Automatic annotation (TrEMBL):
Family according to the record: Belongs to the bacterial solute-binding protein 1 family.
Native source organism of the sequence: Enterococcus cecorum
Organism classification: Bacteria, Bacillati, Bacillota, Bacilli, Lactobacillales
Protein name: Sugar ABC transporter substrate-binding protein
A GO biological-process term: maltose transport
Domain of life from the UniProt record: Bacteria
C-alpha cells in the first residue's frame, strides 16, 4: 500500500503545481525598475505563502520581491534553461536531493562570504544534517530553510491491545508487534513498508551499521546492506505489511480499528492524520525510529540558494538572512507546517510543549541526508526496481543486490 501524502516536504524536496504571484511592494520602492526586483523561485504550493512574510522584508529593506512557484513537472527543465541562458531567479529554493546536480552544473553561488557576514547564517545555528546538504568541496552553496525527517506513526490504542504500551524501540520489537497486529484477522496488517519509498532501504541499511559508500564505491551487496533489505522484505512476505497498494489513503487505513496501525513517514503526514482521521484523535502518536545499531533517519527538506548569475546577490543574501531568523522560521512553520532548520527556533514554547514536534526534534538530531551525489536519484530509482523483483518476483535478495551493485558501479563510472 502506498499511503497518500499531503506533500509539504515531499521525497526530500518541495513539490506541487504553483503559479506566479507578486508581493512585497511598498511606496518607497514603487519607482524601481523590474531589474531591481528580487526574484524568488520556489517549488511547492506553500511557497505562495511567502507573500505573507515578504511585506515585512520590503518594509525593512526597501527591496521589492516577486515570487514564482514552479510546477514540479517542469522545474528541472526550467532550471537547466536558466543555467544555459544565464537568466533566472536571484533566490532559488532548492530541494536537498537536487543540490549536488545543480551545484555541479554551476547554478549555485558560494555562500561563504555571506555566512561570514551574517550571524544568522552561521552553520552552528542549524541541524548538522541540514548543513551537510549545502556543503560541496568544503564550500557552502545554500542555507538550510525547511527540514524533513522520517518517524514512526502508530495507533496507541491498537498497539496497547496487543501488549505494547509504547512504540517499539528496536528492530526485534518492531517485527514482534507487526506480527501481533497482523494476527488480528483478515485484512489486518502491522505496518506499511512502502515499496515505492526510495530512501527506506538506505535508511535501514545505515541503522544496521552499513555505510552506503566507501572511497566512492557503493556497498549495496555487502552483508549488512543485504540484511537490511531482507528485514524489510520479511514484513511483506509474512503478511505483516501489504504486498501491493491497497488503493486507500490514511483516512481509511489509520481510522477505526486501523487496518494499518503503523507506518513510517514525515511531518506532512502529521497534518494529514489530524485533518482526515478525526476518530483517531487522542489515539495516535509518533516515535523516533526503532533501533538496530542506531536509529538514523533520513534528513531532507530544502535550502535557500543564490543563483550563480544573479545580479542582486547581496540583496538575495539579505532575504535569506531574513528568512533564517528564528522568529521568521516560526512564522513559516505557522503558515506551512514546515519544520524549522534553525535549532534556536525549537526553544519556542509552541514547539517545546507539543508532543509531535518534540519527537520530530529528537529525530532531526539523529538524521542524515541521503548521499550527496548527482547520481543518487537514479541509483534510488534503480533500487526500487530491484526491490520489486524481490518482494513481488520472489528473487533472492543477495543475487538481486549483486546485480544492483554492478549496475550502480557502472552508472558511477560513466
Amino acid at each position: 500500500m502506498k499511503l497518500k501524502k499531503l506533500i509539504i516536504l515531499g521525497a526530500t524536496t518541495l513539490l506541487s503545481v504553483g503559479a506566479l504571484s507578486a508581493c512585497g511592494q511598498s511606496n518607497s520602492t514603487s519607482s524601481k525598475s523590474d531589474n531591481e526586483v528580487l526574484n524568488i523561485w520556489g517549488m511547492g504550493e506553500e511557497v505562495k505563502s511567502l507573500s505573507k512574510m515578504t511585506d515585512d522584508f520590503t518594509k525593512e529593506t526597501g527591496i521589492k520581491v516577486k515570487i514564482q512557484s514552479i510546477p514540479w513537472s517542469n522545474a528541472h527543465d526550467k532550471l537547466l534553461t536558466a543555467i544555459a541562458s544565464k537568466k533566472g531567479p536571484d533566490v532559488l529554493q532548492m530541494g536537498t536531493t537536487w543540490m549536488p546536480e545543480f551545484q555541479k552544473a554551476g547554478a549555485l553561488t558560494d555562500m561563504s562570504k555571506y555566512i561570514n557576514k551574517y550571524e544568522n547564517l552561521k552553520p552552528d545555528n542549524f541541524f548538522k544534517g541540514s548543513v551537510e546538504t549545502t556543503i560541496f568541496d568544503g564550500k557552502s552553496y545554500g542555507i538550510p530553510w525547511a527540514a524533513e525527517t522520517r518517524v514512526l506513526f502508530y495507533r496507541t490504542d491498537v498497539l496497547k491491545n496487543v501488549g505494547y504500551d509504547e512504540a517499539p524501540k528496536t528492530w526485534d520489537e518492531l517485527e514482534d508487534v507487526a506480527k501481533k497486529l497482523s494476527d488480528r484477522g483478515k485484512d489486518k496488517y502491522g505496518i506499511n513498508i512502502d515499496s515505492k519509498e526510495q530512501s527506506l532501504a538506505f535508511m535501514f541499511a545505515r541503522q544496521n551499521g552499513s555505510p552506503l559508500f566507501e572511497d566512492g564505491k557503493p556497498l549495496f551487496n555487502t552483508p549488512k546492506f543485504v540484511e537490511a533489505v531482507s528485514y524489510l522484505n520479511n514484513f511483506i512476505q509474512k503478511g505483516y505489511s501489504p504486498k501491493e497498494d491497497l488503493g486507500m489513503d490514511v483516512s481509511q487505513t489509520f481510522s477505526g480499528d486501523a487496518m494499518v496501525p503503523m507506518f513510517i513517514s514525515g511531518p506532512w503526514m502529521a497534518k494529514a492524520v489530524k485533518d482526515t482521521v478525526p476518530d483517531a484523535k487522542g489515539k495516535w502518536a509518533i516515535a523516533t525510529l526503532p533501533k538496530k545499531e542506531n536509529n538514523l533517519s533520513s534528513m531532507g527538506g530544502s535550502n535557500l540558494t543564490i543563483f550563480k548569475y544573479s545580479k542582486q546577490k547581496d540583496n538575495a543574501a539579505k532575504f535569506i538572512e531574513f528568512m533564517s531568523r528564528p522568529e521568521n522560521q516560526i512564522k513559516w512553520l505557522e503558515l506551512t507546517d514546515a519544520l524549522p532548520t534553525v535549532m534556536k527556533t525549537w526553544e519556542n514554547e509552541k514547539l517545546k510543549n507539543d508532543s509531535i514536534y518534540k519527537v520530530f526534534y529528537e529525530q532531526l538530531q539523529n538524521s542524515e541526508p541521503m548521499p550527496l551525489i548527482p547520481e543518487f536519484e537514479e541509483l534510488a530509482q534503480s533500487y526500487l526496481k530491484h526491490f520489486e523483483q524481490i518482494y513481488l518476483g520472489g528473487k533472492d535478495v543477495q543475487s538481486e543486490m549483486d546485480d544492483y551493485q554492478k549496475e550502480s558501479e557502472k552508472l558511477l563510472d560513466k
